[in-house]
Amino acid sequence: MHLPAALLLLLLLHSAESGRAARHYGARGHPWGGGKVRRQAQECKEYIEAGEKYLDCQDQQLTTVMQDWPTDIQHLLLARNKFQVLRDNMFSQFTRLKSLDLQQNDISMLEDGAFAGLTQLTTLLLQHNGLRTASEEMLLPMHRLSYLRVYDNPWNCDCALDSLVRTMQLPSNRNLGNYAKCAEPLSMRGYKMRKINVELLCAPDRDGEVPSRPQIKVKPEVTSICRTYLFPKPLLDCSSKDLNHVPSGLPSDIVKMDLSGNNIKHLKPQQFLMSKDLKLLNLSSNSLQHIDTAAFAGLLYLRELDLSNNSLHNFQYGVLEDLYFLRKLSLGNNPWICDYNIHYLIYWLKHHPGVQYSGLTCAEPDEFRGWRVEDYVKTYNGECPKDRQTGGIDVGWAGLGGTDTDNEAQEVMGD
Ligand SMILES: *[C@@H]1O[C@H](CO)[C@@H](O)[C@H](O)[C@H]1NC(C)=O
Ligand SMILES: *[C@@H]1O[C@H](CO)[C@@H](O)[C@H](O)[C@H]1NC(C)=O
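== Leucine rich repeat containing 17 ==
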């Protein structure tokens, strides 16, 4: 994170300008206390101007609001961060907020209650984001909203947008949604949302439209099926929902995900790719039979994985390679088959001694039923002719698992 000297100087000058009264909040939840210059770029600044309190957290790579931010502010500046999803009640502690600037983030989803509690808000800036749809419900808590900017978002002007467009077009709402244009469907591309004929949005057959065109859902599947809890840790609870697949639209900032007690048979590649902060993934009591090699891609920080009570026979070669920080792996109550295909798992565990695991018992074939899988692998090696041994686990897979030094380095990074 090396900043060019000119930029540093600018930052310095800027913070000097804001005066001595400015207080600093760490973007990651630590008040740094105005320490080293190098850290200026990771701070939020609190200041008072014309009697109103501002918290400036622009350009910080933030994906969510922090619990240690002061709640009595009137203006919250969050432009140019990395917000992707605005969740229900995300800002509800800032009850005095008059303006909220979220422009130039990566926001692609707004939950209906995202702005709940913001009864004093008059100005909301959401321009330059990735919004395709939103409902008028999100505006309801903000009785005083008079200024809304949503241009430069790829709005999909279909039926789901009907209520929002109608609200924008009310003559009394002169400053809601100015300049915003439809990006989809093709027949409406480039038209201003405040000017389009709303009657067309929900018309059954729009001319020029392919009838079978899939409707974009108002909410990703996950928000309608699962429950999200923000405290104490962001948790997504999708347990016992009769799901036969991992739901789409998994949020990016979730720390724990519970998918237990469903009917998922197959984990496909990269379904958790967006959930980079995930530390606990619970897939117990599904019907898992197959896990694709890249299924856990992106789960760099996963610490605990519960795969117990499934129908797994072995792990395909490579499946575990993305799990650098794994500490606990629950494998019990699966019909592990003790043949050559189980060796990858044992090999991986051997090379990741920091991983606590449980429940690794052979279910098949008959001669090994009830054996510990490790013991079976030892016998296999012992009994094997020499040529097979050299092509076997100790040599053949060498270099795949991280070395101990790698693990230590990663551990330091993670904490
Ligand atoms: C996973 O979910 C099951 C069932 O809800 C629960 O019994 C188990 O403790 C959970 N595993 C972890 C690691 O939290
Ligand atoms: C194991 O999963 C099955 C459904 O797949 C469920 O009925 C059973 O209660 C689970 N057992 C435990 C111990 O969680």
